[in-house]
Write a structure and sequence with these properties.
By secondary structure, this protein is α+β, with helices and mostly antiparallel strands. It has 14 helices and 20 strands.
């Protein structure tokens, strides 16, 4: 298999050097073949960093495990292989008035990947994370045994696998509970806000009356326009389509340009046009679900616009009490560094707890920034964003990261030793080797010296 199949979507990290198919990976774990140095499941490669990479070992391409095994239209319970895409689940359930309770910003992620990263969507305040809707999962470990896991069966493995970034074994299949919706269409309202103070005043009230809420920030705007943006709220339309539309758009970026196309002049013009187009009317309008949930899916290979060096994404979450100071500080740091973010997204997380041992969402506000990879200057900015986040009592998202240091990870996820204790010894990722394993080695060295 070509190494390019296993590259992270952001291209800021190198592709995994070796890959095998799901059948071979399962045979290895069941004792039919010799095991490599380490394994890691690979879904559809939509992570922006190295949580889906295993540079020192082998990745197992799970996409051939793509069957929907069972579906109950009355209860909304769907069982599928770990390699099934969310787009396929949407298409299968839509005619019955059912829809995933939680979906991220792309439908081209696998079921196993959504569980392993405990992804979130625009309705965390209502539904929590993806893991909140997982009923059971089937996990294959390197001891050759298959475990049925749920909140009551093998509960520790269940909690470690949700949000466990693929480190507990191969997720062969899972059962999830879908939610009933009147249609797939969304009634969307765009509300302009002058600054972040006005956004924070709007956000909690918007969450109380809407299924979905997310804000777009004009990240390049400074001075009196600093923090301006649009708050998008949405609810499923009472009368609309029950048919899933074609997954993915007709537009594409056919080649990767030799330089970053998303430069500051382009971003300034884009932000002005986007703000005018989306914010010119405050009246609700009915839109298709593809455009509301998956705007970037409409342009295939859009990541190529960042050029050969790719992009870095920084997603942080800070507690509500710190957000009014921390979020402006994060945006100001990016402006001072002269770095423009193509899409800057701000939303409020609710208080629904995930069953996962390690889950990124927690009560507060989460800010997402995308930066072209400009080498040391971009890395310095990301370290500054890390510092602001951690000092505010927040966390940095590991499954969208390609360079986080071990100490930042430990500050963001102080419970990491609990996942390390349940990690399958034959499984490793480039991210875990770069963060938790370094912390574990440091801890072991201190204990040995005592």
């Amino acid at each position: 298999m070509a190494a390019e199949r296993f590259q992270s979507f952001g291209l800021a990290t190198p592709p995994a050097p070796r890959g095998i198919g799901a059948d071979d990976g399962i045979a290895m774990l069941k004792g039919g073949q010799a095991k490599p140095a380490s394994l890691l499941a690979y879904g559809n490669g939509r992570s922006y960093g190295d949580s889906c990479q295993n540079e020192a070992g082998t990745v197992v391409d799970m996409r051939s495990l793509n069957r929907i095994r069972a579906f109950n239209a009355e209860t909304g319970l769907l069982e599928a292989d770990g390699g099934v895409l969310l787009s396929d689940i949407i298409a299968h359930a839509a005619p019955y008035g059912l829809f995933p309770a939680v979906i991220p910003g792309t439908q081209f992620v696998t079921l196993g990947g959504a569980i392993a990263n405990d992804v979130h969507g625009k309705n965390h305040h209502r539904r929590g994370t993806f893991g909140c809707h997982v009923e059971t999962l089937t996990l294959l470990r390197s001891n050759g045994k298959t475990y049925r896991c749920s909140a009551t069966d093998n509960a520790r493995l269940f909690r470690a696998t949700i949000g466990g970034m693929g480190l507990t074994g191969l997720i062969l299949s899972a059962s999830i509970r879908l939610m009933r919706v009147p249609s797939l269409d969304i009634v969307e309202t765009a509300t302009p806000f002058r600054d972040l103070g006005e956004f924070f005043d709007l956000a909690e009230a918007a969450d109380q009356v809407n299924e979905y809420a997310v804000a777009w920030i004009d990240q390049l705007a400074g001075g009196r326009n600093s923090g301006r943006g649009l708050l998008f709220t949405g609810n499923h339309a009472e009368h609309g389509s029950h048919a899933a539309s074609r997954a993915g758009g007709t537009l594409s970026v056919p080649v990767r340009p030799p330089f970053n196309v998303l430069n500051r002049p382009f971003l300034t013009a884009f932000n002005a046009a986007y703000r005018w187009k989306k914010g010119r009317s405050a009246a609700p309008r009915q839109v298709g679900y593809q455009g509301f949930f998956f705007p970037l899916d409409g342009v295939r290979d859009w990541n190529r616009l960042y050029g050969p060096k790719g992009l870095f994404q920084h997603q942080s979450v800070v507690p509500e009490e710190a957000a009014r100071e921390a979020v402006p500080a994060l945006l100001a740091a990016a402006r001072r560094a002269g770095q423009g973010s193509f899409l800057t997204v701000l939303k409020r997380f609710g208080s629904i707890r995930s069953p996962a041992l390690l889950s990124f969402p927690r009560p507060g506000y989460t800010l997402t920034l995308d930066f072209p990879n400009r080498g040391s200057a971009t890395l310095a900015l990301l370290r500054e964003l890390d510092r602001i986040t951690v000092e505010a009592g927040g966390a940095v998202n590991p499954y969208k990261d390609a360079r986080m240091g071990a100490d930042i990870f430990a500050s963001s996820f102080p419970e990491w030793p609990r996942l390390e204790a349940l990690r399958d010894p034959a499984f490793m990722s480039s991210f875990w080797a770069r963060t938790a394993k370094k912390l574990d080695m440091r801890r072991s060295a201190v204990e040995a010296a005592e």
